[in-house]
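Minimal example, chain plus S-adenosylmethionine.
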Amino acid sequence: MKSNGDQLIVLSWTGKYDDIDVKPGVLLYDNERSYGDQNTKNLLIHGDNLLVLKTLELEYAGKVKCIYIDPPYNSQIVFEHYSDKMEHTKWLRLMKARLEILRVLLSGDGVIFVQIDNRELHYLKVIMDEIFGRQNYRNSIIVNSSTKKPTVQHDTVERLNTGYDTILMYSKEEDLRIPNPFIEVDNQKNSGSWHSLWHSTNNPVYRFELFGITPKQGEWRWSERRTFKAIDNYVKLERYMDCYTFDYDNQDDFDFHYKQYLERNNLSVKDFEVVKLNMNSKPVYYIPPSNKVFLSENWMDLKVNGDLTDFETECNEFILFRILDWISSPGDLVLDAFLGSGTTAAVAQKMERRWIGIESGEQCYIHCISRIKAVIDGKQDGISKAVSWNGGGGYKFMELAPMKD
Ligand SMILES: C[S@@+](CC[C@H](N)C(=O)[O-])C[C@H]1O[C@@H](n2cnc3c(N)ncnc32)[C@H](O)[C@@H]1O
């Protein structure tokens, strides 16, 4: 059994270490099926992803910024366009072999997202810990998979409906810092708010006296210098507000005057933090109103399924939009090795990322080609409006050459 220091826990199954002898194959350029600008680096590849990934390894090791895959969930359903019915250990082996190569393809600052439901989630997590390192596990993001079913009343059920899919997220390197993602919300009345300056982290670094209080446990959130500057700011603000009829209990009034003070003095929120003692004699700091909502792992505002094609497990373009917007920049390389109807490629194209999509089924010829051609022609659907997409670009179609005996 493979073991290296911190990898003392591994998932074991019959046949796990049976070597899969994968050798790079040959990718043949298909001019007929390619479309648009042929100077593009975008690749749509038809073939089994294990061999294709092994082939790509030669040129793309360490070059992919963002990998998103939505592999078969092993739901035991035979769909119209592919079978999702596999023996459990075969599914594990399939995933392990591909994830190992995907890790090699990721760049040092790269991130991988794997979407799955609860049937294989927990096994997948353990395999990914083993391949990517548990220290590189970042998040389990959940997206909404609930469907409106006819309400059938039963007294008993086998189990509860799940209602969500999970997207496991791993980095390649442990020290990678990622942007703090947020969404902008319109038409929502936001008010400023006050939060306790004390928090429970048992770190005595910031236990200075403040308004006559010295914490015996926990600490103040901010350094002494920052805190006293913010108290000073509050005093200045109070002096300014004293010139106006001002209701101290009305948060909207305070928000209004705070904003006006910043504008008049050409200050930003960062330049002008404020701290005060609240009515319960607790030091509190102020967070001004904002239309930014910082995201947690709860992405239940996004539905799993898209509705742009007749592909049964088409993913919602807005999930990919949120991921790529967060983790990648225009020009970065994005890869999906289980492309299905082409969602990742369509979104990457509209967001001006370079992309590689791999799909072994006929849907590569049918769904992916027609969908991506339409995107290049400027079709308005999915995320098009959100990114002001007008068309352009192209892709090269590659066919994995049949293996010779
Ligand atoms: C859940 S679907 C992906 C759906 C996709 N995210 C979309 O938005 O349409 C999984 C896809 O993986 C493909 N697939 C399964 N095994 C594969 C393999 N070994 N190589 C390449 N593609 C594979 C299936 O044919 C299927 O289209």
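Residues 189-290 form one domain. The CA atoms of residues 162 and 297 lie 16 Å apart.
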